[in-house]
Amino acid sequence: MNPEVVAFDQLEWSDSPGVEQRLVTRTHHSGELIELPVARIRGAKPGPQFTVISGMHAGEYSGILAAQKLISAITPAELSGTLLVVPVISTRAFMERYMQLNPIDQKEIHFIRPGSPGGTYSDMLIDTLFEVVKDSDYLIDSHAGEMAQALYSWVPVPMWGPEDLREKSLSLARGFSVKYIEPRYDEASIPPLSLAFASVGMANVWVECGKNGVPTEADTAVHFDGYIAALQTVGMLEGEPARPEQEVLKGRRSQINSDMSGVWHPAVKEGDIVEAGQYLGRLTDYFGNTLNDYHSPTRSLVLYYWSNPAINADRRPHGYNWHNGLVSLLELED
To answer: 4-248 sits in which CATH class?
Structure first.
C-alpha cells in the first residue's frame, strides 16, 4: 500500500470498513514541513475509536516497531470500531537520529499542550497530532529509554478527570507485562499532552518499555501485547485480555541533576531500590578527578539513569534538564 499524502486541512477518512494510510502534511510559518504518518483501520462492526501513538521521542524505537506491527496485524473484519496508529510522531527527529528534543526548536514535545499552531515547530506538530486523534475514546502513547537512558519498564497512568475516566485509563495499563504501574494524581506530574487528552474525555496511558535505544524483541512484544490486551479490554477485539501480575507504585518523582559539566560514573542500575543517603555515582573532570558525589535523598526506586557519561550542564534548551540529568527516582512510600 502506498500512503496518500494529504494536507492537514484536507484530511478526510472513508466511512467504509478498510485500511487507509495517510502522510498528513502541514507547513509551519518558518517554511519547515510537518509530516505525520497516520494509519486508520475501520472495523466491520461499530465500536469506539482507539489511538496508538509512538515515536514522540525519536530514539525510542521499541514502541515504533510495535506500532508498525499493529498496523499489519489488525484486519477490519476482526475489529469493532476504529483504530488509529501514528507510528512515528517526530519524523524529522527520527530521520536525523535525534534523541528526546526536537531538532528544529529544541523543545521536549511531551510537555507541550496543544492549541498553539502559530507557535514554534513543535507547538504546531503537537497541535496537528491532537487535532488528528482528538475524537478518540482511548489512547496509548508508547515510550522507551533512548541511547542515553537505561530505563526500567513501567506504565504511568494519569488519574485525571472523572472517576470513570480514571478507571478506564487504569484498565488500559493492566494489560502490559511490566512489574509496576504508577497512577499519577498530581497535575504537575502529568505531561501537558496527557492532560489535554484527558480533558476531552480520552482515557490514556503512556508506556515506558525499552532502554538505551535498543529495540529488543522482548520490549517490542511488551508494547504490542499490551495494545492487543487494551483492544480486548474495550471490546474492540475478541478474547480475554492479558492481566499479568503488577504492583502499584506510589510516591513523589525526583531527579538528580548536575550543575556542573563533566563525566558521569553511575553506581546504580535501573530498577534498583536505594536507601536514603545511598551513593548514586560521581561526576569527574576529563582527567578523572572527582567534581562531586551524589546520594539519594530518600528511599527510592531508580526509574532510569543516564548511562551516557557526557553531562553538559550548560545546555538546557527552554530550561529542560535533559543534558545534565543523572538519575530519575521515585520516592517509595512506607
So the answer is: alpha beta
